[in-house]
Input
Amino acid sequence: MQDLEELLSIDRNSIWHPYSAMSSDLPVYHVESAHGVRLKLSSGQELIDGMSSWWSVIHGYNHPQMNQALEQQLKSMGHVMFGGLTHTPAIELTKKLLSITPEPLNAVFYSDSGSVAVDVAMKMAIQYCHAKGEPKRKRFISLRSGYHGDTFGAMSVCDPDTGMHSLFAGVLPEQIFVEQPRCRFGEQCTDKDIAPLKNTLAEYGNQCAALIMEPIVQGAGGMWFYSADYLKQARQLCNEHDVLLILDEIATGFGRTGKLFACEHAQVVPDIMCVGKALTGGYISLAVTLATKEIHTIIDNGEPGVFMHGPTFMANPLACTAALTSISLLLESDWQGNINRIQQSLEKGLAPCRNMEQVNDVRVLGGIGVVELKQQVDMKRIVPQFVDAGVWIRPFGKLIYIMPPYVMTSDDLDSLTRAMRVIISKI
Output
């Protein structure tokens, strides 16, 4: 136990956790192991994981086929530079991605994380416009309440109020923001709903390289589900104004919303698409930016004749193997049936929250369940309550939400929603 205390002391004094200060008194729990949908703490307590480790561990932890594939890959190589070299895991993963993503996306760029994939997409859009002889198209249009990552390019297109714009004012590029669509998923998009985007493109379209959006689900910016018809009309407006459409599918890709990719709800194909998170089943960080043939051809034929990006660990063989195995596991499973089952459990389990005075809204789509409170969550109090209840749920802002692994049983789903109902009722 002394060794553990020493480890935790190092953690408290020397390690930054996401969006935390080292001096923070927010609780941090030491995980000893993880199997299936459970996290085992060093205390011996087990927690049902409602977060899929930030939406990535879709098949559960310590999956035997994932483990075996990575062990086998290690016997040949853990990493090799991608500059001037290639390898089978990257080629096979590329073939698989091109077979499941919407046409005409037919070129992939591998990077290390979702934020970098967004930065890569933005660089692609700018370089594409430059190669076309339109160097003034350097800005981006983004939706308010959106979230695209924490690197500088991605930060610049996150929500300007809840993001980090004030802290990095004068450093971040200044982008153009459109009001969040208020037409809910399942509703039609009216002329009033689309008017802010339509007017913005009419005024600023000739300055912009692309419109960037999270399709259907705005994730960490507010867990808001908007109309598929809005996305469809946004695609049409981009075509009219010769503005590229970048879709950030990092949180929504690989089945989370009930479609393999959320853009399929609107039958829309982007010019550039970013995927990550669940791509590798949560085993290793990897992200992909996909683009159309027109984009990569024009970039290749322009100045300087190459796309200007290249991470050290680009297309890491272990990460590509994890992604290829995870995608195969997903497609070979009854993932649509599982997502439908999860959605039904979440709708049933969270419905009573709608009648609670402290609740503003309840939203469910696919494998995502959200309870929006009227007041900000007290993290210091509520997280320990969830842990005491045997579940791992990490709220933010006014939102208490879950995005469980696809393999979670109905009994475990009931335990998650029961814990949410009980603890929310006491707030």
User: Anything to note?
Assistant: The mean pLDDT is 97.
